[in-house]
Amino acid sequence: MALRIEAAGLSVSRGDMLIFSNLSLTLSAGQSMVFTGPNGAGKSTALRALLGLVGKTGGHAHFIGENETALPLAFAAHYLAHQNAMKPELTARENLAVWKRILGDFEGGAGLDPEEAADAVGLEGVLDLPFAYLSAGQKRRIAFARLLVAWRPVWLLDEPTAALDKAARETVATLMNSHLGKGGIIIAATHEPLGLEAAEAMAFTGPTRLVADPFMAEAF
Ligand SMILES: Nc1ncnc2c1ncn2[C@@H]1O[C@H](COP(=O)(O)OP(=O)(O)OP(=O)(O)O)[C@@H](O)[C@H]1O
């Protein structure tokens, strides 16, 4: 079988709240999925659980690579969170160069140079400004350029188009579809259409209380 993500029976609880349960998915090279649902429904938690960044109550998630080797998803994935993960005092160029050095390339592809990555998001002109000086949309675009400086087959994106104008949203859609065309896999939590061609959707409905009866709860 092709390179893929496999998750089965993934469940996360926080305190006495079950955030979601039994999340199962399989996505192969070139496939994408969007997580949808209202604020607080559990989309970000699901991305973080897939990556192993929050404790799971059950289930597992893996990247299945060459020769059917199962790896933790984090080895093969980029994670674009709500935060941009850039040092404010370093320039955009320095930030991208640091990430390129730290991340390196996963097998099967090669990342762009910081200049090429910034150009791909239409922002070569701001490369030598400290990240802190950039506008909110420029910051998000440079954060997105991080995905391009190191090859990772899997992109896990949390509201990737937050703060982006229409032109930048179109640029990001083109880059995401191009990543899928190279055999990448994308899961994105979003409140708006991302322009991902043929993305599957998974709807999150929100947490439920693990102990329904308050009198029973007191007994614990
Ligand atoms: N310790 C906790 N106890 C109970 N509930 C918690 C705890 N920590 C987080 N939660 C709840 O987990 C839920 C999932 O939050 P998450 O950030 O995953 O939602 P989201 O779908 O990404 O929302 P948004 O669209 O606002 O980004 C929220 O309802 C939050 O209140």
From TrEMBL:
Residues 5-219 form the ABC transporter domain. One of its GO terms (molecular function) is ATP hydrolysis activity. Keywords: ATP-binding, Cytochrome c-type biogenesis, Membrane, Nucleotide-binding, Translocase, Transport. GO terms for biological process: cytochrome complex assembly. InterPro entries: AAA+_ATPase, ABC_transporter-like_ATP-bd, ABC_transporter-like_CS, ABC_transptr_haem_export_CcmA, P-loop_NTPase. NCBIfam families: ccmA. Belongs to the ABC transporter superfamily. This is Heme ABC exporter ATP-binding protein CcmA. It comes from Martelella lutilitoris.
